[in-house]
Write a structure and sequence with these properties.
Strands 3-2-1-4-5-6-7 form a 7-stranded parallel sheet, with helices on both faces. The protein has helices at 2-11, 23-39, 55-61, 85-103, 116-125, 141-146, 187-193, 213-228, 241-247, 265-271, 281-290, 306-316, 328-340, 343-353, 361-375; strands at residues 14-18, 44-50, 66-69, 107-110, 130-133, 152-155, 169-171, 202-206, 232-236, 256-259, 274-277, 294-296, 321-322. The radius of gyration is 21 Å and the shape is globular. It has 376 residues and is of the alpha/beta class. It folds into 2 domains: 2-174 and 359-375, Rossmann fold (3-Layer(aba) Sandwich), CATH 3.40.50; 179-356, Glycogen Phosphorylase B (Rossmann fold, 3-Layer(aba) Sandwich), CATH 3.40.50.2000. Helix 2 (23-39) packs across helix 15. Residues 1-10 have low confidence and may be disordered.
Length: 376
């Protein structure tokens, strides 16, 4: 019996994944894992994340085991915080090596974030087939450092040869969560989940998984106008929830749902007539696949201002409206009201953004993983 069990374990694929810090890195990793699980039902999965980051909570909620590394990024504004960074890196390399030796992965997959660098680096050093996925036009530091060590680099945009070895690049698009694509046949029930009226317009506000202070300030200043216009509001505040409720006294009302994080994002997307969002790569990919009208407010706090580049590509295709972060508090609510009350504008934005959709992205990445399996 033990021999048979050992045989089953040894022949099953084992996938180790790392991506986190923000939803933009984490959700692609979960999407890839879910697709691999559907393809290989007997496979084993293990995530590796950074202690104290969102992945340590969200990955178990998605049904996967996760181990944490003592790792963080370089702090540019508070240099003294970097004094222990060399020790964190050394500790993370040692722990990553132990994890790999014990788990014996078939393939290691990274989607960016602090923990992905030591894990994927050690996997490559131990001759484990490795794949990284880059969501943005301007890569994060982990993926740039890993590029020469890994076997495959999945990207969204052409022209990434300036960052990654050309022979390793495959353009796949961004993986998105399958659970956000819900059947429209149950749409009436989705309104009931939020306690909303299906005959009223619904605004969805998502400032990224960690929240966006400027967007929150804009919504806070304009809530009375939304109520006056009978607009239903789903508002993901991120880490600013306590500040908004305790200091500013924001409360959930009849026509609004307010929370730090939306676990049933598919339901929220389904009933939203208009979405206000940062212009992160994953958010845009989800909006495109779902055909959602949107107002994008690029974050000014990202490398190479890549969110503005993301947003302007859509604006040029008349697929989204774009608002500068500095103008958001003053102009967002008027723009929301003008847009959400015009079915013509909503329909045009919804139709045009579908031109940017790549619904098969996750499947394309899994195909690349399968190729790596065959080389082992």
């Amino acid at each position: 019996m033990s021999k048979s069990k050992h045989s089953e374990i040894s022949t099953a694929h084992r996938f180790i994944l790392s991506g986190g810090g923000t939803g933009g890195h984490l959700f692609p990793a979960i999407a890839i894992a879910n697709q691999l699980k559907a393809k290989f039902p007997d496979a084993e999965f293990l995530f590796v994340g950074a202690k104290g980051k969102m992945e340590m909570e969200k990955v178990p909620l998605s049904g996967y085991e996760i181990k944490g590394l003592w790792i963080s990024g370089f702090q540019r504004n508070e240099l003294w915080r970097n004094l222990n960074l060399p020790f964190k890196l050394l500790d993370s390399f040692i722990k990553s090596r132990r994890i790999i030796k014990k788990f014996k992965p078939t393939v290691a997959i990274g989607t960016g974030g602090y923990a992905s660098f030591p894990l994927l680096f050690m996997a490559s050093r131990n001759n484990i087939p490795t794949l990284i996925q880059e969501q943005n036009f301007f890569p994060g530091i982990s993926n740039k450092l890993l590029a020469k060590h890994v076997d495959k680099v999945c990207t969204v945009y052409p022209g990434m040869e300036k960052y990654f070895p050309k022979e390793k690049i495959v353009i796949t698009g961004n993986p998105i969560r399958a659970d956000i694509q819900l059947s429209t046949q149950n749409k009436d029930k989705y309104y009931e989940i939020f306690g909303f009226d299906k005959n009223k317009k619904t605004l969805l506000v998502i400032g990224g998984s960690l929240g966006a202070k400027t967007i929150n300030q804009a919504i806070l200043s304009g809530m009375d106008y939304l109520k006056e216009n009978d607009i239903q509001l789903i508002w993901q505040t991120g880490r600013y929830y306590d500040e908004l409720t305790e200091i500013h006294g924001v409360e959930t009302c009849k026509n609004c749902w307010i929370g730090s994080f939306i676990n049933n994002m598919g339901v929220a997307y389904s009933i939203a007539d208009l979405v206000v969002s940062r212009a992160g790569a994953i958010s845009i990919s989800e909006l495109a696949v779902l055909g959602k009208a949107s107002i994008l407010i690029p974050s000014p706090n990202v490398a190479e201002d890549h969110q503005t580049k993301n947003a302007m590509a859509l604006a040029d295709g008349k697929a989204s409206l774009v608002l500068n972060d500095k103008e958001a508090v003053e102009k967002l609510i008027p723009m929301v009201l003008n847009t959400i009350n015009s079915d013509h504008v909503l329909n045009e934005l919804s139709k045009n953004i579908e031109n940017f959709a790549r619904p098969e992205s996750t499947s394309e990445i899994v195909k690349e993983v399968e190729k790596l399996i065959q080389t082992k």
